[in-house]
Amino acid sequence: MKRIHNVLVANRGEIAVRVLRTCRRLGLRTVAVFSDADRDAPHVRLADEAMHLGPPPARESYLSIERVLAAAKASGADAIHPGYGFLSENEDFARACAEAGFAFVGPPAEAIELMGNKRQAKLRMQAADVPCIPGYEAARPGESLEDEALVREGQRVGFPIMVKAAAGGGGRGMRLVREPGALLDAIRSARSEATNAFGSGELILERAIEGARHVEVQVFADAHGNAVHLGERDCSVQRRHQKVIEESPSPAVTPELRERMGAVAVQAIRAIGYRGAGTIEFLLAPNGDFFFMEMNTRLQVEHPVTELITGLDLVEWQLRVADGEPLPLTQPEVTWRGHAIEARLCAEDPARGFLPQTGRLLAWEPPSGEGVRVDHGVREGQDITPFYDSMQAKLIAYGPDRETARERLAAALRELTVFGVTTNSAFIQHVLGHEAFRSGRYDTGFVGAHTPPEMLQELGKASLEDQAILAALLFHDDAQALARKGGFDATLTGWSSSYALPVPVSLHDGASEFRASVRPVAPESYEVRVGDTSFALSLRGLGAERAEVEVAGRRRAVRYRRAGGTLWCSLDGITRQLRDVSFRLPSERERASDGRLRAPMDGRIIRVSTEVGATVKKGDVLVVLEAMKMESSLIAPTDGVVTAVNVTVGAQVPARHVVAVVSPAAKEAA
């Protein structure tokens, strides 16, 4: 008898929207939950009912088991879907749901607890004859995981070696060590980070398999003893051990290897009495050997690529299994067709070390077209806050073959319009166009090998022609605004009773500063000089905030939007924010350092490593700030003495907030 009729989705953003849509398609009543920061978010508007949880910090809202269960009870929900992240892999939450009488759309609490610890999971997989990476996890009684023991065992395992936090993922508490002398410092650093992130400093060691690919297998099991795999996904393009691009099938997996990996993955979930959706993650070595890394006991971010090549709705499968139904298909009935690639669109600045970005979405226009799918939970006018993950959307493309899928995804990214917040779109486009990715011959070292910091700073850098177009567009938009304000004919823009003089401007396009001179020569026609190069161009309006620019017979479409003194525009798929800095005051970089240490973004202070009166050296870490699940170390700008500390651990601070002041040593001596 059917038990699930009313589903509360205990999450936010794109995954909440994704789950809600399947629930509505199945005719189920839906309940959303929200924090103060998400009152007007799309997932709140999509649900039949929405329940307020609390303040923006996740621990006071989305991570509060008591508040989520209270919302479920008040709304009359009979099932809770956790999505991914937040409480999705929290065994206490799964157990509390069951005890309160709610169907938990996920695996049993015992499976979550077992597989949530890398050490325990690895020991269980070894017992089930699943191939595991050689390493050290204190498997025998009396063995220690203390620093000294790890250093000793690290020498035995050999280098390079990975130090890993047992209790978490996402790259936190993980260090690659190449030399024996660096192992102890790496262990101490990883233990500290793991303790702060997961509340546990337990570590394990694994031999680093270089040149490997990260390949995971989607698995499903029900309460009737059935278990299947739905193929693999290649997640090797990563930065800081966090996935950027995923695809299915993997270019490195043959049908024979898929069958072997799938059989091992099913063997693994049978060994733990699993139920629901899960993912077995493997490292695939260059020689074709594969090794168990970990299991994610939830739906994965990248599940859409599996859905597109199988034609299945994995959220529907989750709901049916949670309602006691058997799996819809047996293993022989599962088929795969075509190729799918997914890219994670994040609010971050690759040129600044992928620093998370916050702000208001001035424009949000997702792409469309054959084979293109966009999963998102944002809307125009929404504030992107520092409280949650930086991922805002997933762009997925499907095609009959890999190259078609790749080209469709690249085109979708060029069509995407996001103004107001810097994203990693240009970085993703670079990856998709790189020969190593196009060929399919890449591994987990892709980002480090092909996108060094100096190259990231060059991504999206405007050519001279681009700079001329940007200068003319800003000038033209200013003139149009003046015409509207003055009430005169916009065709008179740039008119002069005598020879029109060039107007010198200094502009900053978000990546660099340049100078140009703009001279109107006719309505919508300009002569622009950048350096020693002159360009004759025309701008023709195509409607609201869209234009077509022609230079030397070449026409290009431009999308733009003005926000105060900043003009956001997209040219050939590259988004830039243009500011006129012709009359600015000297910037901080142009002045001698005043010793003020400022927060680079909105965030929460998680560590203060100094105090007033402390003597510090330039580069010393004084404060650590966390935003969007990423930690940023704020360092002393100069040698000197700390004369002010304006934050405490746990404080939420805005971007540009002065967290500390260091008086330069020379001044102190004086």
From TrEMBL:
Its cofactor is biotin. SUPFAM superfamilies: Glutathione synthetase ATP-binding domain-like, PreATP-grasp domain, Rudiment single hybrid motif, Single hybrid motif. This is Acetyl-CoA carboxylase biotin carboxylase subunit. Residues 122-323 form the ATP-grasp domain. The lineage of its organism: Bacteria, Pseudomonadati, Myxococcota, Myxococcia, Myxococcales. Residues 587-663 form the Lipoyl-binding domain. Keywords: ATP-binding, Biotin, Ligase, Nucleotide-binding. Pfam families: Biotin_carb_C, Biotin_carb_N, Biotin_lipoyl, BT_MCC_alpha, CPSase_L_D2. Transmembrane segments: none annotated. One of its GO terms (molecular function) is metal ion binding. Residues 3-452 form the Biotin carboxylation domain. SMART domains: Biotin_carb_C (SM00878).
